[in-house]
Amino acid sequence: MKERPYWSDTVAPFSPAPHDFPARVDVAIVGGGYTGLSAARELARSGARVAVLEANTLGWGASSRNGGMVLTGLKSSAGALVKRFGMETARALFCTSLDAINHVERVVREEGLACDFRRCGHIELAYKPGHFAGFIREAELLQKHFQHPVRLVDKAHLGDEIETDLYHGGLVDEASAGLNPAQYAVGLAQAAERAGAGLFENARVTHIEHDAAGTGFAVTTARGKLHADQVMIATNGYTERLVPWLQRRIIPIGSYIIATEPLPPELAQRVSRHRRMMFDSKNFLYYFRLSADNRMIFGGRAGFMPANAHTVRESAAILRRGMLEVYPQLKDIAVEYAWGGTLGFTFDLLPHAGTTAAGIHYALGCGGHGVALLSYLGACVAQHIAGRRIENPLFTLPFPTAPANLYRGNPWFLPLAGLYYRLLDAIS
User: Fold this and answer.
1) Residue 18 binned pLDDT confidence (cut-offs 50, 70, 90)
2) Strand pairing of 286-290 and 296-300?
């Protein structure tokens, strides 16, 4: 079993064109994933001098480690959003997720990105009968008040979507899409470079401060220092002490994935009739799909802690058991890859974008919906930096941290949260 992302073996190695490290730029972007690369492309197209400063290699983090699901909605259901914010704001938030998918599709088309983007739809699967009753309420809300078409599939007809006895029905949304995340990340990097952005790998940012004149920022990196008129943080689940205000608002949570050997075509057709993006209704959810070459890509919160060699191996065993719970017919199929990555969650389960009191721009915290949302929010922050007015609720909602200042970036509570969510899954 290879302990690396399967996706990395589907893309040719990419290294940015060599440049002298700049002394001065208009915008320094910290983080070379979807968020930072989308922002860099947008800013460079508008004529700005941009430097993307990546601590590792471009796309190294969750951008090349996720399941490649380009999903409608947010981590919270539409019904939960209505309860918290009211109908108008909930609709605006949901529409933002649709705008995000449209943005990805438009960039893929404009830049000619070969990343297997396809509007295949998604199906959420009811782990318990009561969860399907919740799907009925959610479908009514989406269709009646959000004017967004979805389709219920009861247990008797679930075989038209997926060959399994585990679930009790599903909710299909045809607007979602899938892609190859590593190919998309490399494509975004190449697009940003074509637009004129400078891309710098192994350039971990260690310090940001206002310059002596108070007109910009002095940015210290592993490759040297530079001056930037504006700074954007695009580090999501890898946000560290660089900007403490942001670190206190982002919880790094591990997510793990296995990939099997390619399935025979007939078996692939049985396990996913329409090659949709699939996930279930548990808090400790499973999410899964077929790759272009018919591998089962199967992920989940096998553990909440960020990935290391031990957690990857442990999680691979847990996920294989989960895969066989869903698909006993895969018992003789070998698992060839296992890997982990770190997602950025927020305390309100919403992504956020905006500007700190110190004048540093940011977009992060998508909680598993980042392929579309972080691509889109990166572009929106770039437009904001360029002086355009942004009408987006994720720029205006309060960005909470833990009460009583109990969280300063060390997620000490994750084991307790894991127990809590497992209990909810047991009793829901």
Assistant:
1) very high
2) antiparallel
